[in-house]
Every structure is written in structure tokens, then in C-alpha cells.
């Protein structure tokens, strides 16, 4: 898959079969559109092109009351690229979404953007897709321009769109409600997030459970609700020459248990994410860590002291290994 970020410097696509969307989560519903895209391209010996906008349009467009939506997304841009890469799309075009871009009229969007930049053979979009200033452009307008600009519009069936909307909403809610099984089932993969290992209170190691504290840098990434989870992990390794950073992705995932919470037992107030990694003994401050959220174990509890917490951590470890090893 080739990734294009400069819309003024796109290649000449061959019989471009394009679709436009946010594809947040790149979940099982999205795969149905991607399959339709590939099928269509196969029929006309064309190239598959996904057009996506970044930042998310809802973060750029102000609402009638003048505010902007602070939205939590399932994927950062680089995660989305990585997930789409696995789908063997020919081209991903990331269009910088600006106020100026959003103010194009629907006709300008069709002529100056879709036609001029992509020369599409076919455009696959949902019947309810809206574009252009004040969302004035719709499926019907594209249809009206088909013969003038020599492209075909293909509709994404309503049941597929319905499935996508349902899936995205379900995944978000499930993660917010600790229902990891539902989220992962709708995603078609294990939900993950990344962050940098930062210093904590250095209490973990005295308990016998050192915990890497993770700071998620992307403010828009949706983090599951507070609770204790069984997780798998990948860590970036800084090689000896200090220059190359390589993810442990070729190795089996590390296993561990994670707490997302305020740590009431030790008088914490701020929500932190911390993970105790099993069979592991390395200092990994400042390193990047990716957490795959596999199962929810329990809610965070205020214990009567560290001994009680320690006993619970021993139980959590047994439970984590049990759920992780069952699959
Ligand atoms: C799997 C796991 C479960 C945890 N559960 C709780 C909990 O229920 N209540 C609580 O107050 N803290 C809980 N903690 C947080 C501990 O209090 C925390 O790891 C300890 O204070 C060490 O903090 P430090 O890394 O800043 O040194 C949990 C931590 C882990 C890794
Ligand atoms: N098994 C392990 N799991 C998590 N972190 C570990 C482990 N072994 C060593 N570490 C290192 O120790 C740190 C956690 O120890 P801890 O005493 O909890 O300190 P802190 O409060 O700074 O997180 C991690 O950031 C990591 O660098």
C-alpha cells in the first residue's frame, strides 16, 4: 500500500476505484467495504484507493454553538495506516482536513478534488454520504455528475453501512463499559494502544510487582474504562548502537496485568495506566510500549493497606495467566 499525504502530488491512478471514509477502527464492518472495493477494482483492472481525512472532520468543523467536538477515536493515524496496510489496498490518501477544505462547495469538491486529483473510474460511497460546504453534496449530486466526468457511482448497501455504524458505536461503548470481549469481536482483532513508559512512585517494586507506568501521548485515543485487565505487550527495543528502535513484534507477545485507575489504596487521585509484565526484568523507562487489551478481570478496589493489595495482585496474576493461556 502506498501512503500519500500531499494531494497536490498524487500519481496518475489506473482506473481508480475509490472510497471515502474515516475508517476509524478498521473493523469487521469496514472490511466489507474494502472487499467491495477490491472486487470492483478486480473487474476493471483498476487500483484501489481509500481517501481518508486527518484530523477527523468533527475536530475541525465548529458546531453551531461555536465549540468543537473533543472526540475519542479507536485508532491514531499511524495505527489506521498499519491496519489498512494489512488489507492490501493499493493507495491510501490522507487528506489534511482544514477549514478551507471543508468550505469548498459540493461541486468544487467533485470537480477540483475527486475528479481532478483521482480521475476515478468508480466511486463507492454510502447513500447517506455528505460532502462539501454545509454537507450539501450527496449521493444524488454525484450521480448527476457521472456522465459529465465519466465515473460510476456505486452505493454501499444499507445493511453494510448499518453494520458499520452499529459496530463503531458498539466498540466504543464496549470499551467504555469494560466489555472487552464485545469490542474485540466487533473489531476482528485485539484492541490496542501505545504509550511511553514514565516514572511512577517506585512503590511497585517494593510490593514485588514492578509496574511500568504508561503515558499515552495521543489525546484522542480511546482508553478503556478504569479497571484491571489481562494484557499482552510489545516493547520497542533500543538496540546497542542506540540508533535503531525495533519493536518486539516478531517475538511472542509478553504477558501482563494492567490497572487503569486512581490507585485509591495508596491515596492516588489521578488516573494512571500501569502494567506488571510477567517473566520480565528490564528497565524500560522512555521506551514505547504497545498494550493489547485481552480481558477485563475486575474493578479497582480500595484495599486496607498494601498487604491486601499484594494478595489481590497474586490472585490477579493467576487469573490473568488462566485467561491468556486458555486461547
Ligand atoms: C494488575 C494491577 C491491579 C491493581 N489493582 C489495584 C487496586 O485494585 N486498587 C489500588 O488501589 N491499586 C491497584 N493497583 C495499583 C497499585 O496500587 C500500584 O501498582 C502501586 O501503587 C505501585 O505504584 P508505582 O508503579 O507508582 O510504584 C493495581 C496495579 C496492578 C498492576
Ligand atoms: N516485570 C516488570 N514489569 C514492569 N516493569 C518492570 C518490570 N521489571 C522491571 N521493570 C521496570 O521497573 C519499572 C517499574 O518499577 P516501579 O517500582 O513500579 O517503578 P515506577 O513507580 O517508576 O513505575 C518499569 O517502568 C520498568 O522500567
Give a written overview of the molecule:
This is Riboflavin biosynthesis protein. Catalyzes the phosphorylation of riboflavin to FMN followed by the adenylation of FMN to FAD. It comes from Ginsengibacter hankyongi. Keywords: ATP-binding, FAD, Flavoprotein, FMN, Kinase, Multifunctional enzyme, Nucleotide-binding, Nucleotidyltransferase, Transferase. The structure is a single chain. The protein is an alpha/beta fold. The chain folds into two domains: 2-169, 3-Layer(aba) Sandwich (Rossmann fold); 191-325, Beta Barrel (Elongation Factor Tu (Ef-tu), domain 3). It is built from ten helices and 13 strands. The strands form two sheets. The protein has a six-stranded parallel sheet, with helices on both faces. A six-stranded antiparallel β-barrel has the order 7-8-12-11-9-13. The protein is elongated. The model has no long low-confidence stretch (mean pLDDT 92). The site of flavin mononucleotide has 24 residues, from strand 11, strand 12 and helix 10.
> What is the succession of H and E elements?
EEHEHHEHHEHEHHEHEEEEEEH
- What shape does the CA trace take? elongated
CATH level 3 topology of the largest domain: Rossmann fold
Average pLDDT over all residues: 92
Radius of gyration equals: 23 Å
- What strand order characterises the main sheet? 1-4-3-2-5-6
Small molecules (ligands, ions, cofactors) in the structure: flavin mononucleotide, adenosine-5'-diphosphate
CATH class of the largest domain: Alpha Beta
Helix fraction? Answer: 25-40%
Q: How many extended strands?
A: 13
**CATH architecture classification of the largest domain:** 3-Layer(aba) Sandwich
CATH superfamily of the largest domain: HUPs
Give the N-to-C terminal Cα separation: 31 Å
User: Major beta sheet, specifics?
Assistant: 6 strands, parallel
Total count of helical runs of at least 4 residues: 10
- Strand residue percentage: 15-25%
> Which regions are unreliable across 5 or more consecutive residues at pLDDT < 50?
none
Structural class: alpha/beta
Tally of domains:
2
Family: Belongs to the ribF family.
Protein name: Riboflavin biosynthesis protein
Pathway: Cofactor biosynthesis; FMN biosynthesis; FMN from riboflavin (ATP route): step 1/1; Cofactor biosynthesis; FAD biosynthesis; FAD from FMN: step 1/1
Keywords: ATP-binding, FAD, Flavoprotein, FMN, Kinase, Multifunctional enzyme, Nucleotide-binding, Nucleotidyltransferase, Transferase
Amino acid at each position: 500500500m502506498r501512503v500519500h499525504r500531499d494531494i497536490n502530488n498524487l500519481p496518475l491512478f489506473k482506473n481508480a476505484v475509490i472510497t471515502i471514509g474515516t475508517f476509524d477502527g478498521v473493523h469487521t464492518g469496514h472490511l466489507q467495504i474494502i472487499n467491495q472495493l477490491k472486487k470492483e477494482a478486480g473487474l476493471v483492472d483498476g487500483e484501489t484507493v481509500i481517501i481518508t481525512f486527518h484530523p477527523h472532520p468533527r475536530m475541525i468543523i465548529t458546531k453551531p454553538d461555536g465549540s468543537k467536538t473533543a472526540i475519542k477515536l479507536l485508532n491514531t493515524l499511524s495505527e489506521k495506516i498499519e491496519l489498512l496496510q494489512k488489507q492490501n489496498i493499493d493507495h491510501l490518501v490522507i487528506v489534511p482536513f482544514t477549514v478551507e477544505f471543508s468550505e469548498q462547495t459540493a461541486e468544487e469538491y467533485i470537480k477540483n478534488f475527486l475528479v481532478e486529483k483521482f480521475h476515478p473510474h468508480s466511486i463507492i460511497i454510502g447513500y447517506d454520504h455528505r460532502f462539501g460546504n454545509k454537507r450539501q453534496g450527496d449521493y444524488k449530486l454525484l450521480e448527476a455528475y457521472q456522465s459529465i466526468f465519466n465515473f460510476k457511482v456505486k452505493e454501499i448497501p444499507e445493511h453494510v453501512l448499518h453494520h458499520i455504524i452499529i459496530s463503531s458505536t458498539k466498540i466504543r461503548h464496549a470499551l467504555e463499559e469494560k466489555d472487552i470481549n464485545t469490542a474485540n469481536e466487533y473489531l476482528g482483532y485485539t484492541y490496542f494502544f501505545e504509550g511511553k513508559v514514565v516514572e511512577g512512585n517506585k512503590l511497585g517494586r517494593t510490593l514485588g510487582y514492578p509496574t511500568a507506568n504508561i503515558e499515552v501521548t495521543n489525546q484522542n485515543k480511546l482508553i478503556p474504562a478504569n479497571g484491571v485487565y489481562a494484557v499482552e505487550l510489545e516493547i520497542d527495543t533500543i538496540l546497542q548502537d542506540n540508533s535503531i528502535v525495533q519493536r518486539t513484534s516478531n517475538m511472542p507477545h509478553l504477558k501482563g496485568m494492567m490497572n487503569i485507575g486512581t490507585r485509591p489504596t495508596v491515596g492516588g487521585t489521578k488516573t494512571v495506566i500501569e502494567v506488571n509484565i510477567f517473566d520480565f526484568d528490564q528497565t524500560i523507562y522512555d521506551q514505547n510500549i504497545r498494550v493489547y487489551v485481552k480481558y477485563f478481570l475486575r474493578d479497582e478496589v480500595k484495599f486496607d493497606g498494601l498487604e491486601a493489595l499484594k494478595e489481590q495482585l497474586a490472585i490477579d496474576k493467576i487469573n490473568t495467566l488462566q485467561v491468556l493461556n486458555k486461547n
